[in-house]
Design goal:
Catalyzes the phosphorylation of the 3'-hydroxyl group of dephosphocoenzyme A to form coenzyme A. Keywords: ATP-binding, Coenzyme A biosynthesis, Cytoplasm, Kinase, Nucleotide-binding, Transferase. With 201 residues, this protein is α/β, with parallel strands linked by helices. It folds into two domains: 1-27 and 103-196, 3-Layer(aba) Sandwich (Rossmann fold), CATH 3.40.50; 38-102. The protein is built from nine helices and seven strands, in the order βαβααββααββαααβα. α2 (31-39) crosses α5 and α3 packs antiparallel against α5. The two termini are 23 Å apart.
Length: 201
């Protein structure tokens, strides 16, 4: 089974690409979704112990937690030391299940693949990309997002040009959905050896 890492900077369209891989019949492990599940489960007591007052009724309150870690590198590192191993274990279990089921290809959607040294976990890398102006427009349209916060997030991420240089595949999300979907189908066909990916729709 080939493991494809899917990544890209904030606002580049990674979530949309992940959905399109699923539509093409490829199992996708979404790290962000895994964090949401873990915050309501295994991670919650660990996060509360490290950051008292960050949970409500046994579930991590992301707003409260954000107040405690945003702009505090030491606190963020402490949180990552709790969450990253749990997400990785969740992803490993996902890969084991699909490998046992005979899948030819599986996708690990990892937002900070390059930044967290995740290249050793995947066989190939696909990067979603769009022009900087479009990226900025998309991100600033998000509720609660400010230019300052956007710049702070960007500063922590590997530059888009570097990600594209290191990628095996680049998925341009600046065009319409059909163009993005066609590119994803090309990648799936190449990696699975199938002319056309099966659809789960």
């Amino acid at each position: 089974m080939i493991v494809l890492g899917l990544t890209g900077s904030i606002g580049m369209g990674k979530s949309t690409a992940g959905k399109m891989f699923r539509e093409a019949g490829v199992p996708v492990h979404d790290s962000d979704e895994a964090v949401h599940r873990l915050y309501a489960g295994a991670a919650a007591p660990l996060v509360e112990a490290a950051f008292p007052g960050s949970t409500v009724d046994g579930v991590v309150d992301r707003v409260a937690l954000g107040r405690l870690v945003f702009g505090n590198p030491a606190a963020l590192k402490k949180l990552e030391a709790i969450v990253h191993p749990l997400v990785r274990a969740d992803a490993d279990a996902f890969l084991d299940r699909h490998r046992a089921a005979g899948a030819k290809l599986a996708v690990l959607d990892i937002p900070l693949l390059f930044e967290t040294g995740g290249r050793d976990r995947v066989d190939r890398i696909a990067v979603v990309s769009a022009p900087a102006e479009l990226q900025r427009e998309r991100v600033l349209a998000r509720p609660g997002m400010t230019a300052e916060r956007f710049e702070a997030i960007l500063a922590k991420q590997t530059p888009d040009a570097e990600k594209r240089r290191l990628a095996d595949y680049v998925i341009d999300t600046s065009k319409d959905f059909d163009a993005t979907r066609a590119r994803i189908h090309e990648i799936v066909a190449e990696l699975t050896g199938e002319k056309s990916p099966r659809s789960t729709a």
